[in-house]
Design goal:
The protein has 265 residues and is α+β, with helices and mostly antiparallel strands. It is 33% helix and 19% strand. The protein folds into two domains: 64 residues; 164 residues, no CATH class. The strands form four sheets. It has a five-stranded antiparallel sheet with strand order 1-2-3-12-5. It has a three-stranded antiparallel sheet with strand order 8-9-10, covered by helices on one side. A two-stranded antiparallel sheet has the order 4-11.
């Protein structure tokens, strides 16, 4: 591409130079009383060619830059987060309240809390033995005070096979688990975050893990930087973002400064 650009630029310069020579020659022939009009016409034609060429290129670039409404189109821009979830603070972390059920609310961290491999040895794609599950229910959970840990409800998680939009199925996701902190599954992301704008990470879009298996033995589902659910080629050893989720008690024991009261409680 660079070589072609250099060649075109050289030809344009050559054309300008040739046109200038022809015009100078026509002027000398005119002073000498010799025929000169044809030479001047040729010089003007040669000079006009690069000008016309550059004009056409400029118009094409301008049109490409404008959309149908006359506004700059630019390149593709990933959507920004535009969800309508309530935002609360709990345990020193900002959370979205993505679901309300009697007596409890489902929280999803607003931002990534860590970047980690799903499975450090890359030999499996089941949630039960994953590196992230051990981290979330170990070091991460330990950051909360004893009182806050009491408010976090243990959730029974189904980690079965997933049927993807193209009809293919994932490998089995391993046994069900009971966890206080977890990642959303592919199905839960569809259910609680139904649009790309709901799923996209606010501020600086990044890819973040789901807990469901992907399309292969060591592939894991995820949400990419554009808010799309993906399950192809996301290997378990990639360092992707973690957005913890947890069910938290909602009711009298939760103050308004910690979490919103339940719509049902």
């Amino acid at each position: 591409m660079i070589a072609i650009t250099i060649i075109i630029f050289s030809l344009l310069l050559l054309s300008v130079g040739l046109g200038a020579v022809l015009l100078i020659s026509s002027r000398k022939r005119r002073r000498a009383g010799r025929k000169w009009k044809g030479l001047r016409a040729a010089g003007l034609t040669v000079l006009l060619f690069p000008l016309l060429y550059l004009t056409v290129i400029g118009l094409r670039l301008f049109v490409a830059h404008m959309d149908n409404d006359g506004e700059p189109a630019g390149g593709y821009t990933a959507p920004e987060y535009s969800g309508s979830f309530a935002e609360v603070s709990f345990g020193g972390i900002d959370w979205f309240v993505i679901a309300n059920e009697p007596g409890r609310q489902l929280l999803l961290s607003v931002q990534l809390t860590e970047r980690e491999m799903y499975y450090a040895d890359g030999k499996s794609a089941d949630w039960a033995g994953s590196t992230i599950r051990a981290y979330l229910n170990g070091d991460f959970l330990a950051q909360f005070t004893p009182a806050e840990q009491e408010q976090i409800r243990t959730a029974h998680l189904t980690n079965g096979q997933v049927t993807f939009p193209d009809g293919t199925q994932s490998l089995p996701g391993g046994s069900d688990t009971d966890d206080k902190v977890f990642l959303l599954s592919y199905t839960e992301a569809e259910q609680y975050l139904p649009t790309e704008n709901n799923r996209i990470l606010p501020g600086a879009p990044e890819t973040w893990w789901l807990r469901s298996p992907g399309d292969g033995r060591t592939a894991i589902s995820a949400v990419d930087g554009q808010g799309q659910l993906c399950y192809l080629n996301t290997n378990a050893t990639l360092m992707l973002g973690i957005r913890p989720a947890m069910w938290v008690a909602a009711g009298e024991r939760i103050t308004a400064t910690n979490i919103l009261p339940s719509d049902n409680g």
